[in-house]
C-alpha cells in the first residue's frame, strides 16, 4: 500500500471513533442518571428498573415522580415483596393520573398528590371535581388534605364528604378546614417553635 | 524473471509483447457500453468519510442533549418556613425506636428517637406539607403515632400516621 492509500484508509477512523465514543457516553449518562440512587441502593436491580420506568412515565405525563419513589421506599422499608411494591406504585401512578385528569394540570403537584391519596382512600373523581368547583379561586390543597385525613382516620366517606362540603359551601378558610381535622384527630403536641393561639374571649 | 536468453522463451516473449490489434469495432463497443453505465459520483471515495463525520457530529450533539436533559434539576427554594415538630412515643422498647416516613425516604437508620425512661422522642425540621410516617420499635414492631391521626395502610398493611405541618 502506498502512503496515500494508507492515509485514505485511516482517515474515516477518527470520526467513527468519535461517534462510537458519543454512543457509549450517551449510554453511560442514561444509565447513571435514569436510576435514582435511592432505588438502586435499596431495591433489587429488576425492581429498581421497573419503578424507574413508572417514575419516567409519570415525568413524561407531567406528574410528580417523587411520590412514586417514596411509595417504593416505603414498601421496601415495610418488608413488602417486589410484586406488592410494584403494584402499589402502579396504583399510585393511576391515581395521580386520575387526580390530574379530574383537577387539571394547572393545580400544582401538591394538590394532585392530595387528590391521588383521597382517591386511594375511596374518594371519587366527582367529589374531587365538586370540591374544586366549590372552592373556586380559593386554594384547594388544605380542603383536599383534610378530606383525605378524615378518610384516613376512618371517618365514613359520606360523613367526611358532607363535612368538607359544608365548610367549602360557606366559603371556609384553611383554618376552618383544619379545625375540622382537629375534631377527629387526637390532639397533636404543639410545635416547639409556635406559640399557642390567643384565647378568644 | 523468465530467461529471455533462451531462444524459445525469447520468441514467445516477443510474440506476447507484440501489440494486439483489437480493431476499431471493439473500441466502439466498449465506449458504447460505458456510456450506458451509470456515472459514478465524483465523491464516491469521500462518502464513507463524510458519513463518518456526520455520525460523529450527530453523536456529539445527542450526547450534549442527553447531558443537558439529565442535568440535576435546580429545585426552587421553597419560600415556606421550616417548622419544628416533636414526635414522641411511650413504649417499652428494649433497644431502639426509629421513625420512618416521607421526610426521610423511609430509611430505618435515618432518624432514631432519644430515650428518657419509657418516653422516646425526636425533633424534626419540616416544611409545610402532609407527611406519612410510622415508628419502628426494636427494628421489628411497627407502631402508629398515638398522638396523631392514623390510618390502616392498604398498600403494605402496616399502621401509618399522618403529620400535617401547617404554613
Description:
The complex is a heterodimer of chains A (201) and B (167). Chain A is mainly alpha-helical and 201 residues long. Chain A has helices at 3-10, 13-34, 37-42, 45-60, 66-77, 82-103, 109-120, 125-135, 141-152, 157-169, 174-184. Chain A is 72% helix and 0% strand. In chain B, strands 2, 5, 6, 7 and 8 form a 5-stranded antiparallel β-sheet that branches. A 3-stranded antiparallel β-sheet of chain B has the order 1-4-3, with no helix packed on it. Residues 72-76 of chain B have low confidence and may be disordered. Chains A and B meet through helix 2, helix 5, helix 6, helix 7 and helix 9 of A and helix 3, strand 1, strand 5, strand 7 and strand 8 of B.
Write the layout of secondary structure elements.
The complex is a heterodimer of chains A (201) and B (167).
Chain A: H1 3-10, H2 13-34, H3 37-42, H4 45-60, H5 66-77, H6 82-103, H7 109-120, H8 125-135, H9 141-152, H10 157-169, H11 174-184
Chain B: H1 7-17, H2 23-36, H3 47-69, E1 83-90, E2 97-101, E3 114-116, E4 119-126, E5 129-137, E6 141-143, E7 150-151, E8 160-165
Antiparallel strand pairs in B: 1-4, 2-5, 3-4, 5-6, 5-8, 7-8
Overall spatial form of chain A: elongated
Q: Please tell me the overall pLDDT of chain B.
A: 83
Helix-strand category of chain B: alpha+beta
Biggest β-sheet of chain A: count, sense, barrel? none
- Mean pLDDT over all positions of chain A: 84
Percent strand of chain A equals under 5%
Give the strand tally of chain A.
0
Global Rg of chain B: 43 Å
User: Residue share in helices of chain A?
Assistant: over 70%
Spatial gap, N to C terminus of chain B: 101 Å
Q: Into which percent range does the helicity of residues of chain B fall?
A: 25-40%
What composes the largest sheet of chain B?
Answer: 5 strands, antiparallel
Order of helices and strands of chain B: HHHEEEEEEEE
- Total number of β-strand segments of chain B? 8
Radius of gyration of chain A: 26 Å
Distance between the termini of chain A: 104 Å
> Uncertain regions of chain A: pLDDT < 50 for 5+ in a row?
188-201
Provide a count of the helices of chain A. Answer: 11
Order of helices and strands of chain A: HHHHHHHHHHH
Name the pair of protein chains with the most residues at their interface, and give those residue counts.
A-B, 57 and 47 residues
User: What is the subunit organization of this protein?
Assistant: heterodimer
Amino acid at each position: 500500500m502506498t502512503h496515500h492509500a494508507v492515509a485514505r484508509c485511516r482517515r474515516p477512523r477518527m470520526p467513527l471513533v468519535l461517534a462510537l465514543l458519543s454512543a457509549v457516553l450517551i449510554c453511560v449518562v442514561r444509565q447513571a442518571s435514569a436510576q435514582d440512587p435511592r432505588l438502586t441502593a435499596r431495591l433489587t436491580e429488576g425492581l429498581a428498573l421497573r419503578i424507574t420506568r413508572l417514575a419516567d412515565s409519570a415525568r413524561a405525563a407531567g406528574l410528580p415522580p417523587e411520590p412514586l419513589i417514596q411509595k417504593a421506599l416505603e414498601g421496601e422499608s415495610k418488608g413488602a415483596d417486589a410484586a406488592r411494591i410494584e403494584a402499589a406504585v402502579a396504583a399510585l401512578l393511576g391515581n395521580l393520573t386520575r387526580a390530574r385528569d379530574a383537577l387539571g394540570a394547572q393545580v400544582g403537584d401538591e394538590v394532585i398528590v392530595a387528590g391521588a391519596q383521597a382517591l386511594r382512600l375511596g374518594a371519587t373523581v366527582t367529589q374531587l371535581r365538586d370540591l374544586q368547583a366549590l372552592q373556586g379561586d380559593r386554594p384547594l390543597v388544605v380542603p383536599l388534605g383534610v378530606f383525605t385525613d378524615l378518610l384516613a382516620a376512618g371517618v365514613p366517606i359520606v360523613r367526611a364528604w358532607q363535612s368538607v362540603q359544608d365548610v367549602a359551601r360557606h366559603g371556609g378558610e384553611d383554618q376552618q378546614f383544619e379545625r375540622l381535622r382537629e375534631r377527629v384527630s387526637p390532639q397533636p403536641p404543639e410545635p416547639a417553635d409556635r406559640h399557642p393561639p390567643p384565647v378568644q374571649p | 524473471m523468465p530467461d529471455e536468453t533462451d531462444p524459445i522463451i525469447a520468441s514467445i516473449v516477443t510474440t506476447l509483447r507484440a501489440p494486439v490489434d483489437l480493431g476499431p469495432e471493439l473500441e466502439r463497443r466498449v465506449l458504447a457500453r460505458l456510456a450506458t453505465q451509470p456515472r459514478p459520483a465524483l465523491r464516491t471515495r469521500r462518502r464513507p468519510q463524510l458519513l463518518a463525520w456526520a455520525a460523529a457530529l450527530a453523536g456529539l450533539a445527542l450526547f450534549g442533549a442527553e447531558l443537558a436533559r439529565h442535568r440535576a434539576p435546580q429545585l426552587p427554594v421553597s419560600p415556606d418556613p421550616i417548622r419544628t415538630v416533636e414526635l414522641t412515643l411511650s413504649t417499652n422498647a428494649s433497644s431502639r425506636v426509629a421513625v420512618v416516613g416521607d421526610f426521610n425516604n423511609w430509611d430505618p437508620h435515618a432518624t432514631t428517637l432519644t430515650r428518657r425512661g419509657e418516653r422516646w422522642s425526636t425533633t424534626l425540621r419540616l416544611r409545610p406539607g402532609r407527611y406519612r410516617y410510622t415508628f419502628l420499635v426494636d427494628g421489628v414492631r411497627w407502631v402508629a403515632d398515638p398522638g396523631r391521626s392514623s390510618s390502616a395502610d392498604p398498600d403494605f398493611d402496616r399502621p401509618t400516621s399522618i403529620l400535617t405541618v401547617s404554613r
